[in-house]
Design a protein that fits this description.
Elements lengths: L51 E6 L4 E6 L11 E6 L2 E10 L1 H9 L11 E4 L2 H27 L5 E7 L5 E7 L7 H11 L2 E6 L2 H8 L10 H4 L9 H6 L6 H4 L14 H8 L8 E4 L2 E9 L4 E7 L5 E8 H12 L10 H18 L13 H17 L49 H10 L3 H11 L13 H9 L1
Parallel strand pairs: 7-8
Antiparallel strand pairs: 1-2, 1-4, 3-4, 3-5, 6-7, 9-10, 10-11, 11-12
Helix pairs in contact: 2-3
């Protein structure tokens, strides 16, 4: 909409108070379904004044045409009081002059069909009553939804609109079929004490009234400029090679996005050059099936089928080459391969130019290769880990020590007091053990108590020999004296 008709008013320099665009409403957030009145900013007088204006209600959620009486002197952007079927309503003039004639022609509204008139320009009391009515709408909508749910009606109440004089309420709802809401209207009239009008709308009309942000990051088309809702089918997505994903193809209304039709004609024109019903082609190397099609690059991708049914490498063929192969197959001939000799030669030249430009680097292969030294170290570490994780020997071999050539067992007894290399005593024969079966010797070694532990405990209880007078052989006496 034009900034001259902004509902927030204008400053002394002409810029709107509530708009951050500073001179132009770029997003249309102030009003839905905006129409810029560029004739209002011109200083040229309108010789043939058109006697009709376009008035928007509730920030563009609903628009209608009215007769502009000469005594009202209303212009674009004025809040006016207009006639309605049951009382008076308050709206804002969004268009005037010859632009209204064009809008009426576009919407196929005849001048004879417009009977309602503008009463006067709204005063402060009228605007105050309108703001009070707008403040009641959210609570009334919540209460209406509760009543509809208690009656178990399969419907969704999307929006509520008060009339300017607060004598009538229009409730907009969506439903899959017809709803018998006779009892619902009685409950509403008893609850709200006003005249109730129920109006059924579609899912797209509901999104247009409520508004929102689309997946593209912009405001919804239906709430800003789109008024002609055409049917959208999944065929539009298939022609554009889009995945049939319901969540991605659906808009805020739950239906297919209207923008799927925007570029459909361009795709249809481009697809006319492609051969139709080409699911597979045949060559001497085997059968190749069509995998995907790049419409704007004019390339069709084929892949050979193996015996197991898996697909191999993709080959991108231009449309001319595909047509050539199809013609050969119809004549009973098969090319040697999918790609022609010219295409192979071009690919080789391209590869050579890339290698000459960047050099024969190992990084261009795309494979990470370890140097041989690192690979050897890595293998050594693996062997160490394997030795650590090895399981111990079988229980049958436990206790059977190894014997040397002389028949002496090499069983090692651990000394807990030994601090050093535990392998220093390897190979030594345990002295003091009776020679016999190696298994019995090992069991005795395991069960034999350590004498060093007892010596430690005895030494703790012995007195210090320096303080004892009987140093030579008087240990027992000293102990007896201490006990006394």
């Amino acid at each position: 909409m034009g900034c001259i008709g902004c509902s927030t008013g204008t400053n002394s320099d002409g810029t709107p108070k509530g708009c951050n665009s500073n001179g132009g409403c770029s997003t249309g957030g102030c009003n839905k379904l905006n129409t810029y009145d560029w004739l209002t900013k011109l200083d040229l007088p309108d010789v043939n004044d058109f006697g009709f204006v376009e008035v928007s209600f509730k920030n563009g959620a609903r628009k209608a045409f009215f007769q502009n009486t000469p005594h009202s002197r209303a212009i674009t952007g004025d809040m006016v009081v207009v006639e309605s079927g049951a009382g008076l309503d308050i709206g804002k003039i969004s268009l005037s002059g010859d632009l209204v004639r064009l809008q009426m022609k576009k919407k196929r509204v005849k001048e004879d069909a417009v009977l309602l008139k503008i009463v006067r320009i709204a005063n402060d009391r009228d605007l105050e009553r309108l703001y009070e009515a707008r403040a009641k709408e959210p609570a009334l909508m919540v209460r209406a939804r509760v009543i509809a749910r208690t009656l178990e009606l399969d419907m969704k109440i999307g929006d509520v609109e008060f009339q300017g004089d607060k004598r009538k309420v229009t409730i907009f709802y969506t439903a899959d079929g017809r709803i018998d809401f006779r009892e619902l209207i009685r409950q509403f009239a008893k609850e709200f004490r006003v005249k109730i009008e129920m109006r059924q709308i579609g899912a797209r009309q509901e999104s247009a009234r409520i508004g929102g942000i689309g997946s593209c990051g912009r405001e919804l088309c239906c709430s800003t400029w789109l008024t002609d809702f055409r049917s959208v089918s999944t065929a539009a997505a298939r022609y554009q090679n889009l995945a049939i994903n319901q969540t991605k193809l659906s808009g805020q209304c739950g239906r297919l996005k209207c923008c799927l039709n925007y570029e459909l004609d361009t795709y249809m024109d481009a697809l006319e050059e492609f051969p139709r019903k080409v699911d597979a082609v045949y060559t001497e190397a085997g059968k190749a099936v069509l995998v995907k099609t790049d419409i704007f690059k004019r390339t069709m991708y084929f892949a050979y089928l193996s015996e197991g049914g898996s697909r191999g490498k993709f080959f991108g063929l231009p449309v001319e080459r595909v047509k050539e192969i199809i013609a050969m197959n119809k004549n009973g001939e098969k090319p040697a391969e999918l790609m022609s000799d010219e295409a192979k030669f071009g690919a080789m030249e391209k590869a050579l130019s890339v290698s000459a430009e960047f050099g024969d680097d190992e990084g261009l292969t795309g494979v990470i290769e370890l140097p041989p030294e690192q690979r050897k170290r890595r293998n050594k570490n693996r062997n160490k880990n394997r030795n650590k994780n090895r399981k111990p020997q079988n229980k049958s071999n436990r206790g059977k020590g190894t014997q040397n050539g002389k028949g002496k067992s090499l069983v090692k007894a651990k000394n807990p007091n030994q601090k050093g290399n535990p392998n220093s005593n390897q190979g030594k024969v345990n002295q003091g053990q009776p020679q016999g079966k190696s298994g019995e010797g090992n069991e005795q070694v395991k069960n034999k108590p350590n004498p060093n532990r007892n010596r430690r405990n005895k030494n703790r209880n012995k007195p210090n020999p320096k303080n004892n007078n009987n140093s030579n052989g008087g240990g027992d006496k000293g102990n007896s004296n201490n006990k006394k």
